[in-house]
Every structure is written in C-alpha cells, then in structure tokens.
C-alpha cells in the first residue's frame, strides 16, 4: 500500500472485482474446457447436502476454500490433492441460528495465514502450511442471541475484520477487528444502537445513530444491521468498507414506530482499519422495511466519471439501485435502477436519498413490492471487467407481497422470525392476490445476468432467463464472463456481446462464483457446486437441484480436461401413509401446521418435497417412531437437525407430528412457486 506499487493496487482491486488476469482460455478454445479434477470431500461427519457458497483463493499453487459448517480445505491447485483440512467442529445445533443454511463464503489468506469465521461465531487464524490454528477468538458479544457467521473475514492492514448474521433472528449487528498475527481484540463497531437501559453507548457513532431511532424502539428485538457478507479493504487509504443489513424486526413501523432513518441499517460504512472510527457512511435504504440489505459485494476500482478519474466503490444492494460512490469521501456519484423497483421512484441526487412510493408502505395492508426480500441482487457476487468496463450482475427479477406480522412477535428464542414476506408473489394467476396486481408490473420469478455500464448507468446486454437464484459471476482478462445456475449449468459468455460461448452441464445447482488461476503456465477455472443457502427449502421442480442428488463438490476445469460426471438422479421416495397412532384431531393438525411453519419449514420446505432436506411427509416407520427423540432430544444434531426441546413441548411435537401425518397428495410438478 505504499502507492509506488501500481501492480499491488491493481491486484487488490481485482480481488474485489472478481476479475482474473489468467487468459489462456478464450472464446476460441473454451469448447475444450474439461474437468482437471474434482473435490468431493464436503461431507464431513455425515453432514451433507448443504449449500456451498465460497469462492476459492489460490496462493502459490495451493487452493484454500471452505464448505458447509465452516470447514476449511487446502488443496493442491494442480491435482486437487487434499493437503489439510480444518474442521472447527461446529455444533449442529447452530443450524437453528441461521436464517439461510449452514453455509460459509470462504477464507482470507495473508502472509502465511488463513482466516476463517465459523458458523458458531469464532474467528480462527490458521497456519497456511499445516492448517493448525495459531489462534481462535470468540467474536460473539451475547450468546443468548442467535448470532451466526456465514461470511468470509477480510484482512484490513494489521487487523482481520468480521461481522455476523442474525438480522432475521433478533440480534444487534456489529463488525469486529482482531490483530491478524495474535488474534488480540482491536475494535468493535456497533452498527445500530442498543437498548439505552442496558448501558452507555459504546462509541460516538452509536450516539450519532441513536438520534435516528425512536427512543421507544423495539430494543429487545436487537435492531439488526448485521454485516453478514461483504467487507472490503483499500490499503492505499487504510479504509475498511463494511456492508450492513436489514433491521430487526424487518419493518420500521414495528421496529422504530416514530420513524427515523435508523442508522446504520442497509448502509456502506467506511471505517478506519486501525481504529474502527467511521470516516463516512452512505445509507442505501433509510427506514428499511423490506430486508433490503446493503451487504452485497462491493467493488473498488478507479474509473473515469464525468471526465474525472475517480476512486470509486460500486454496489448493487438488494434494494434494486446500482450505486457508484467516491470511496474516499463517500460522495454519491450516481444511483440508478438495475432491476424493476417499485418501493422508490428514484434516488434524489441532491439529498442522496431514495424517494419512497406509496407502494412501499405495507403498514396498513399487503403490498406487492419489487424487488422481493431476496433482493434484486443477493450475495452471489457480481464482477467488473477492466477491459470491457462493464459490471456483470446476477439479478433476481421478482416482487413479493409484504405484510405486517401479527403481534406479538416471537423474537430470538425462535428460529423463524420475520414479519414480512408471506408468500412471495410468484403466481400471477393466484386470484386471491389479484387486487395487489392493479397498476403494477406483471410478476415474474426469474434470474438474469445483466451487463451494466457503471458510468452511463445503463444496461448493455441481458442474458436469457435462468431459474431463480443462480450463481455468482467472474470475468477474465480476455473478456469471458462465467456464471453457474440453479439448473446445474456453468455458462460462459462473451462479456462484450452476451453471446453464449459454452454451457457446461454439471448437474448440481451452482450458487458460488467461479474463479480462475494459473499453475505452471496452465489456466484453471474452479467453481463450487452445491445448492442451498436461502434457497435450501426450495429445490424447484425442473431444476438440476431438484432432479439430481445435491452433490456438493468443487469442480476444476482446464483445456483438454475430462467430461463432467453428473450426479445421480434423485430417487423419488414413496409417499407412505403415517402410522395411525400419530394422526391427530383437526385442531391438533391445524396447530401443528402453524408450529411447522414457524419452526421447520425454512429447511424442510413443504409436502411436495421441495426441500433439500428429508421430506417429512415421506418419513419411514422408523423415523415416525423416533420423531420425538429427533425433534426434541436432538438425535440427529450431528447432521445439522437441531434439537428443539428447549422451545417445543411434547405437546407441540405431537401436534407437528399430527400435521405431518395427515395424508397429502401433491404432485411435485405443482410445487410451490414462492420462495418464502
Ligand atoms: O440479516 C441477516 O443477518 C442475514 C444473514 C444471512 C446469512 O448470514 O446468510 C442472509 C440474510 N440476512 C439474507 O437476508 C439473505 O437473503 C441471505 C441469503 C443467504 C444465503 O446464504 O443464501 N444468506 C442470507
Ligand atoms: Ca437479512
């Protein structure tokens, strides 16, 4: 970061941009890409079938990556040979503390160390050679709350910085920094104010933020603002940028009834990497009520805007606007819609604030709002290519019906917890929801890859429609763009024109971003396959994710490699009638259905077998017999099926069982079209 090293500056910028300089593979020879090696070792201790979200990092011929349950793998980048594995041994009970699966988005690698943040909230510094931990620190301030970490840490100067998740679980978000050599605590930045009754404000920014909250806010619900994904660092200015999340509870009307912007929800925070003091902030969604997190990946680059070379930071947060800011000063340079947006008309360039529409307000009744809670763009990273000067955004094109959750809340004691979003609006023919459609854009439930000119803030090309929730993106120096999708294809595009150059069928849904590297002059392309994450209960019929076994693995390609081996087809399980002794009365079934929706459905989906987890309508007689020991006592905790005995009584379990024991006859082909 001395400034004299232009090469070093280019390198860290490229890392934020998902831009890879390897250029052996090009439009002319991409047809010859085949499998160099595969790594199939993500099933640690019987824990399988979770989403794989990490982008690997390759340093000196060694690939470092993570799988579900925050397990770290070091692999020979040429052969795929496992060099070491670090399993932080996360208690399977923690699956209950995440909104969206036991996923992990990767490691940071720096100066002989590999850093991983674990689902159960620890930050670990590993020796890159041996995988032995040299330090491990607890990053959680309050273990009575459902904090969990899914994001990758980031090295920022002498510290390593990490946030956490839990915005749907009633937590108070913060980012923490620890000395990268020793793990010694450096600083903590609380993103939202805490309950004033609990003590004084921890630092000046908390006091500043408090002015934008109702003094009578729902403090017991945590406030949210979790930094659960993107953290980036600019060594030239020593600023670390932290993207922050939605409020808890979701809607401002319930969270901070008197209103207020509720800083620093849904914001980009620019913090001094040594002290943690704030240099500037930009709030993308003041008063967030729609789960419009600004945790999406942030790209740092230098580019000409309005005839001047600017140091910029770019983000396409969930809220549907593409933002370009001066990353030194925080000045907003431009903000335009990259997808259909109905919650705001535009961003006012004088005030830097969104102009809200009437449509955004669901405080008095259900509203159809674009984008959905899943966002116009979620965590699968977008990419920026220095040659084409375009950003490639994996865009989710869907609205959702938002509604207030009936009082009282069931906050952090229960895994489920959002008051928005039932159901997502996927079916334009659903008569009951027809009134919401009046004068609104026609609902769609699609994903497209958009090539976006960040200077003109204009669409350049758009891909064909892909199934919902497809993967992250990468781009290479000779203008290729690659993206995986839920239907199990890795697609290679010409980044200038959008022409499809190659589609490689992997047969397993892909969420993670591909990456490229070179060893001994040969180029490799790596991508993790394995469906899950927020989509873990929604394996849609017709997708690879639904038709084939979810076969989490890392696939690495090179020119003249071998053909892909597809995963086995999913075996349909028979719909067995439940033993009569587990059937219940109509009242028990109804109550059980309610409890199921609150406690189980986020992972187990519905009776159509939509989930990547065991379909509970197809339990074997043995599973029926063992129901209470699994659900209440945690017989399968090792595999990630948490025990619920602390919040569900025997009575509750019996009613859930009665609900599941009711005969159903829904064909998978008519499976739900909604995401939540
Ligand atoms: O508010 C939060 O704390 C939080 C955390 C996470 C997470 O940690 O994975 C997600 C979200 N929110 C979220 O809103 C979201 O859409 C989401 C998708 C995913 C995923 O891994 O697929 N995680 C999360
Ligand atoms: Ca969230």
Architecture blueprint of SSEs:
Elements (H helix, E strand, L loop, with lengths): L5 H12 L1 E2 L12 E7 L17 E3 L2 E5 L5 E5 L5 E5 L21 E3 L2 E5 L4 E6 L5 E6 L15 E3 L2 E4 L11 E6 L5 E6 L13 H7 L12 E2 L6 E4 L4 E5 L3 E2 L3 H4 L11 E6 L5 E6 L14 E8 L2 E8 L5 E6 L5 E6 L6 E5 L4 E4 L10 E3 L13 E3 L4 E8 L2 E3 L43 E8 L4 E5 L10 E4 L3 E5 L4 E6 L5 E6 L9 E5 L2 E8 L14 H4 L5 E7 L26 H14 L1 H4 L16 H5 L1 H5 L18 H12 L15
Parallel strand pairs: 1-33
Antiparallel strand pairs: 2-39, 3-4, 4-5, 5-6, 7-8, 8-9, 9-10, 11-12, 12-13, 13-14, 15-18, 16-17, 17-19, 19-20, 21-22, 22-23, 23-24, 25-26, 27-30, 28-29, 29-31, 31-32, 33-34, 34-35, 35-36, 37-38, 38-39
The structure holds pyrroloquinoline quinone and calcium ion.
Calcium ion (CA) binds next to loops.
Descriptive key words:
676 residues, 9 helices, binds pyrroloquinoline quinone, globular, binds calcium ion, single chain, disordered C terminus
Task: Describe the protein.
The protein is mainly β and 676 residues long. The chain contains nine helices and 39 strands. Strand 25 and strand 26 form a beta hairpin. Helix 5 (586-599) crosses helix 9. The radius of gyration is 24 Å and the shape is globular. The chain binds pyrroloquinoline quinone and calcium ion.
Derived from helix and strand composition plus strand pairing, the structural class reads: mainly beta
- Provide the low-confidence segments as ranges: 411-423, 667-676
Radius of gyration from the CA trace?
Answer: 24 Å
**DSSP E strands, number:** 39
Instruction: Specify the biggest β-sheet.
Output: 5 strands, mixed
Mean pLDDT: 90
Helix fraction bin: under 10%
Please state how the strands of the largest beta sheet are arranged side by side.
Answer: 1-33-34-35-36
| Count of DSSP-assigned helices | 9
- The gross shape turns out to be globular
Tell me the strand percentage band.
25-35%
Distance between the termini: 45 Å
